[in-house]
Amino acid sequence: MTAPLTRSLYRTTAHAVGGRTGSVRTDDGRLEVRLAPPRKKVPGTTNPEQLFAAGFAACFTSAFAEVAAEFGADASAARVACEVELGTTDTPAGYGLAVVLTVSLPGWPAADLQALLHRADAVCPYSQAVRGNVPLTLLAVDDPATDDRA
Question: Which of 68, 20, 10 is nearest to 40 (CA)?
Answer without folding.
Answer: 20
